[in-house]
Automatic annotation (TrEMBL):
Residues 289-298 have a biased composition (Polar residues). LDL-receptor class B repeats lie at residues 969-1011, 1012-1056. PANTHER family: NIDOGEN-1, VITELLOGENIN RECEPTOR-LIKE PROTEIN-RELATED-RELATED. GO terms for molecular function: calcium ion binding; Wnt receptor activity; Wnt-protein binding. Disulfide bonds join 832-839. Residues 286-320 are annotated as: Disordered. It comes from Myripristis murdjan (pinecone soldierfish). This is Nidogen 1.
Length: 1189
């Protein structure tokens, strides 16, 4: 075998060995246990204890070390011999140290249950434990445990249920604890197999108490007295949290496996959960041999399932393994920061940075006197400001209702040369404000970003600049309330302010109104890697109550900061792997009168090792320099003050320099200079734009809008329309009532199509026609009734008595054959004449469509075609860049919608660009109207549907999926807050709810205009499904309900008559023929798909975990391409912009003669009234006044 082939084989083997299945943990995947594995067995009973000496290695638990542990029947391991169970069951936290794998009143007296335990240092067990730990903590490369002990609770019953002979007697729990130790740390691996947890609570003191899991520190001895230490619970008081131990996305990347770092030396900070939420895939991985306890003769090991279980997706080989190990001598270009050069990307660097080219890319470096990551640079010593918005949904105490707030202002100010940070958040109601006081780090991250640097260490902004994402998990003690904080930092705006958006979700303990909070100083260790920073700490605070009482509380804090780094940045590579943030002088206050919460704190970043503190005033902050000055340390206690860039003075007093006045030509020709504190801005004069260097202003080369100028060659305006499509391009199209290529349009004689009633006279006009009832009849020409009563009146066309205003076409004479109608009175689109054995398609008037007639034994696929109707919709906003000619892929990412041109089935990635910028918005669904060439999107931050201003009614609380019927000029959307499926015209008017029942979490929706159908998916976790109905709300049907988990993406391919969806739970992409209900899998092992669209051979989906647009060939069932946006973040909706509208027709192409909503259905249509009106025989009567605009 060649060396290259050997390396490929090694790569493949390692890749497969590192992958894991998304399926739940099976019983035979536990570590080996039983007598054959060398286990000892605990004495049967309901409160038995056995001592296990640890001869190979002691375990570290919290800040203590133990050379022996005690195994107990009731699902725990302790560091000391436990007291009787009455002292701790139902009374947690206990006074002794305990690892609660699954604590409850358990029993194995009947001999069926067993508790096995052993110490094990065999290579196979150490390798498995190491793999679990490294998968949960991917950044910890030095994990190398030397010993483990394994405890297995098998077939344990709840005490009091054995021997009863009922269903409770048969319910048994099986679970396992593995503790792996090395010299510097110990880890707990908890394994909960599928069907292994068959009961969720036990009876304690006459009441059912949920089982619980966690890590209990017990009593901690202080200087003068002992106090209760930390109890880190991994479950809550809800039984669902127990069930989720086997089913939920864990911290290890594997269902049923949970990993925690439980002790470290020399310094212990906190119990630390694993960091991997991503679920890995497995196939062809040889499972280790497992030894389980032998069964008793005649005993059948049962695992009856007491609760409904979500369908488990079958295991499959992933198309593209995501974990790759490359041999060092394998010549493979694994990653390049950017293959472009500074010549084309200089503008991406800060104005205070230099761009440097490297062999495989470029990088930005801040100039001397500035610091940052090169794309964001700020002057040394200059105070920094941060502005942003805060949104949240927070429960306080035991309140069943959350406090919700949105777009609250956040402002922060940092004196950079002493590390002091000030934060204020406005409009916080007094029902929440006092309880947010302990969360000083909500804005304290800016303190880390601009912390006072100790020698040899760097603050956050020096390393990663101003664009990053921070997520923090807060667990309060002793109530176990949990809060999630998410903050997106968006860089520096035109005012030199750092911009951030924050989101709070969860529960906080109640702090009474009028109470004050004091937070003790704390230290927090930050661990650094190439694109991820993590930290954790324990924080104590004191609540002084209005009645004079004092409470001491604490919470555990864990956060991750993700960012995009440049591989050439020497500063990032030189940073110490760990740094310590020291925070003191913490001040918090809630101002009830102004509904303001304020935080202040001093921040220093330095070494994790204790040593004599730095005394130089530059490192303590006690220097007396001006706020706009940098402190320069000298020998010993010597220092000097130097005004920062953009200011002048002696350093003790600094004044702004007006660069625009002192250097008038600083911006160059054709530019305007604007002075700002410490800096200035250049803007190109009208008619000029920045050149590629980002500085020089050159004359703007403006495209010509020939439609507006009148220099196009389209037909006359009364026959054709000129549509501007960007650049200097335009498209000609004939108006309704005319046929042609847009440059030559001819009138259509509608009278030859028998559009009028048989008792009416048709008069053709240019582009239209007029129907008028003959003498002796009355009506609108489409419907004519005799003016006299009698039998003739009964034969005339009439409206349906259903009150739905279904409009039925009259039946024209077509030779000797009478067309067939459906049950609603509309023509069947396919007509067959039995006597001659032929079938053909007919239009809405019952007339045969040429070239559709087939011979005996076959039926045509009848999809009628007609001229595209006149556009109805809003005009584009000025910040939309129209799509150039051709077919494109649009996708939503954070605050923008991007465009990727398509060439055949491939993506032209180098021509990708932003189509529309929507700052501070989260775009979920995207749709495109091929007639108007307009993009529509749903925005959950507004919330609203943009490009469709809904007139009348209230706003849309949480619009998600959106779809367009370009023929009927309708838009459909799902609303996950209202739990509705709705419809409106493209201008947002005449809104109507189609469905508001049997919906839980509706998200994606798509249309089939030719058949008048809509399809949507509901990712209700208890019963996900994909449904279908006619566009008028009739014939609602569940298409798919089996083997679904999180059907996020949905699309319809009209060319192949296929409905396709992407499921983030089963991790599959599948398609179905909705007519024949034939279902097939297109792709397996996808990561986390969100949205899906079809084009040609390919399905394109956005993936949250890969942060990419992925192309899959539906026929070869293989991934063919991937597009990674330059700015990596979650991608949401995706849609196509076809060069031409797909040919389709439905009965509402001209609104079907309806006064308001015309809603298509299979083979016909229905006239409906909007929700703000009621249906009367005379038409739609509005319930309130409607604006005429």
């Amino acid at each position: 075998m060649s060396s290259a082939a050997g390396r490929w084989a090694c790569w493949l083997a390692v890749s497969l060995a590192l992958s894991r299945s998304v399926a739940s943990l099976e019983l035979d995947e536990l570590f080996g246990f039983g007598a054959e594995a060398g286990d000892e067995a605990l004495e049967p009973g309901s409160d038995s204890t056995a001592e296990l000496p640890l001869r190979n290695a002691s375990i570290l638990f919290f800040s203590d070390s133990f050379s022996k542990v005690y195994i107990n029947t009731n699902g725990f391991v302790s560091g000391a011999k436990p007291p009787a169970k009455a002292d701790y069951l139902g009374k947690m936290p206990a006074e002794f140290k305990m690892i609660a794998a699954l604590l409850g009143d358990l029993d194995n007296s009947d001999g069926q249950g067993k508790v096995y335990f052993r110490e094990d240092s065999s290579p196979d067990v150490l390798a498995r434990a190491t793999e679990h730990i490294r998968q949960a903590f991917p950044r910890d490369d030095d994990v190398d445990p030397t010993s483990t002990f394994i405890v297995t609770w098998e077939n344990m019953a709840a005490r009091g249920t054995t021997g009863r002979g009922d269903v409770l007697d048969r319910k048994r729990n099986t679970f396992q604890l593995v503790v792996a130790s090395m010299e510097s740390a110990s880890y707990a691996i908890l394994l909960y197999p599928r069907d292994g947890l068959q009961y969720l609570s036990t009876s304690i003191g006459g009441a059912n108490k949920p089982l619980e899991a966690g890590f209990n520190q017990g009593m901690v001895q202080g200087w003068f007295y002992a106090s209760q230490g930390t109890y880190y619970r991994t479950t809550t008081d809800e039984e669902t949290s127990i069930r989720e131990l086997t089913e939920y996305e864990t911290n290890s990347g594997r269902h049923g496996v949970w990993v925690y770092e439980i002790g470290t030396t020399p310094v212990f900070i906190a119990i630390t959960p694993g960091m991997t939420a991503k679920l890995f895939t497995e196939e062809n991985v040889t499972k280790p041999a497992v030894t389980s306890s032998p069964q008793q003769p005649g005993q059948q090991q049962e695992y009856p399932n007491p609760e409904p279980v979500q369908p488990v997706p079958p295991r499959s080989q992933p198309q593209n393994p995501q974990i790759v190990v490359v041999d060092e001598d394998l010549d493979v270009d694994v990653f390049a920061y950017n293959l472009e050069t500074c010549a084309n990307n200089r503008q991406k660097c800060s104005a205070f940075a230099d761009c440097r080219d490297y062999t495989n890319g470029y990088c930005c470096h801040c100039r001397p006197g500035y610091y940052g990551n090169g794309k964001d640079c700020v002057a040394e010593g200059k105070p920094q400001r941060m502005n942003g918005k805060v949104n949240g949904r927070v429960f306080v105490g035991n309140s069943p209702s959350p406090v919700e707030f949105s777009n609250n202002d956040l402002h922060s100010y940092v004196v950079a040369n002493d590390g002091r940070a000030y934060v204020a958040i406005s409009s916080i109601p007094d029902s929440l404000g006092p309880s947010l006081q302990p969360l000083s780090s909500l804005g304290g991250i800016i303190g880390w970003a601009f912390a006072l640097e100790q020698p040899g260490f760097q603050n956050g902004f020096s390393l990663i600049g101003g664009e990053f994402f921070r997520q923090a998990e807060v667990t309060f003690q002793p109530g176990n309330e949990r809060l999630t904080i998410k903050q997106q930092f968006k860089g520096i705006d035109e005012h030199d302010h750092l911009v951030v958006s924050s989101e709070l979700d969860g529960r906080v303990p109640d702090v009474p109104r009028g109470a004050s909070v004091h937070i003790e100083p704390y230290k927090e260790i930050y661990q650094y890697s190439s694109n991820l920073i993590s930290s954790s700490s324990n924080r104590e605070y004191t609540v002084s109550l209005p009645d004079g009482g004092v409470q001491t509380r604490s919470y555990q804090w864990r956060q991750t900061i993700s960012f995009q780094s440049c591989v050439h940045n020497e500063a990032t590579r030189a940073v110490p792997p760990t740094q310590q943030l020291s925070v003191d002088q913490i001040f918090v206050m809630y101002d009830a009168g102004n509904q303001l919460i304020r935080f202040a704190m001093s921040n220093r970043i330095g070494s994790i090792h204790s040593g004599p503190p730095e005394q130089n005033p530059c490192f303590t902050g006690r220097h007396g320099c001006d706020n706009n000055a940098v402190c320069r340390p000298g020998e010993g206690l010597q220092f000097s003050c130097e005004c920062t860039a953009g200011f002048t003075g002696d350093g003790r007093s600094c004044y702004d320099i007006d660069e625009c006045r002192e250097t008038p030509q600083v911006c160059g020709a054709n530019a305007v200079c604007s002075n700002q504190p410490g800096t200035f801005r250049c803007q190109c004069a009208s008619g000029f734009v920045f050149a590629s260097d980002g500085r020089t202003c050159v004359a703007e080369s403006r495209p010509v809008d020939h439609c507006q100028r009148g220099s196009h060659d389209c037909d006359a305006p009364d026959r054709a329309r000129c549509s501007y499509v960007g650049g200097s391009a335009y498209v000609c199209s004939c108006l309704p009532g005319f046929l042609g290529d847009g440059r030559v349009c001819q009138d259509v004689d509608e009278c030859r199509q028998d559009r009028c009633h048989r008792d009416a006279i048709c008069s053709n006009t240019q582009g239209s026609f007029v129907c008028q009832c003959q003498p002796g009849f009355h009506g609108n020409g489409f419907q004519c009734s005799p003016t006299t009563t009698g039998s003739a009146q009964a034969a005339s066309a009439s409206s349906s008595n259903t009150g739905l205003f279904s409009f039925f076409r009259p039946r024209p004479a077509v030779g000797q054959y009478v067309p067939q109608c459906d049950e609603r009175g509309s023509y069947e689109p396919t007509q067959c004449h039995g006597s001659i054995g032929q079938c053909w398609c007919v239009d809405a008037a019952g007339q045969e469509i040429p070239n559709t007639r087939t011979g005996p034994g076959s039926r045509p696929l009848c999809i009628e075609q007609t001229v595209t109707p006149p556009p109805v919709g809003p005009t584009p906003r000025p910040d939309i860049s129209p799509a150039p000619p051709g077919t494109h892929l649009l996708f939503a990412q954070s605050g923008k919608i991007e465009l990727v041109p398509l060439q055949g089935d491939g993506m032209k990635k180098d021509e990708a660009k932003a189509l529309l910028h929507i700052p501070d918005r989260v775009v979920i669904g995207v749709a495109y109207d091929c007639v108007e060439k307009m993009v529509y999107w749903t925005d959950i931050t507004g919330p609203a549907i943009s490009k469709a201003s809904l007139n009348g009614g209230d706003t849309i609380p949480s619009p998600e999926g959106i779809a367009i019927d370009h023929v009927a000029r309708l838009m459909f959307w799902t609303d996950s807050m209202r739990d509705t499926v709705e419809v409106a015209k493209l201008d947002g008017s005449q809104r109507r709810v189609l469905f508001d029942s049997d919906l839980v979490n509706p998200r994606p929706i798509t249309t089939n205009p030719a058949y008048g159908r809509i399809y949507w998916a509901d990712w209700n976790r208890d019963g996900p499904k994909i449904e279908m109905s006619n566009m008028d709300g009739t014939d609602r049907t569940v298409l798919v309900k089996d083997d679904l988990t999180l059907p996020n993406g949905l699309t319809y391919d009209p060319d192949n008559q296929q409905l396709c969806w992407a499921d983030a739970g089963t991790r599959k992409v599948e398609c179905m023929d909705p007519h024949r209900r034939l279902r097939r899998t297109v792709a397996e092992g996808v990561q986390y798909p969100f949205a899906l669209v079809s084009h040609g051979r390919n399905l394109y989906y956005t993936d949250w975990r890969r942060e990419a647009v992925v192309a899959v060939d539906r026929f070869s069932e293989k991934e063919t391409d991937e597009f990674l946006p330059q700015k990596r973040s979650r991608l949401y909706g995706v849609t196509m912009t076809p060069a031409q509208c797909p040919q389709a027709y439905n009965y509402c192409s001209n609104n079907g003669g309806c006064s308001h909503l015309c809603l298509p259905r299979l083979g016909g249509f229905t006239c409906r009234c909007p929700d703000n009106s009621t249906q009367r025989p005379s038409g739609c009567v509005f319930l309130f006044s409607v604006s005429s605009e």
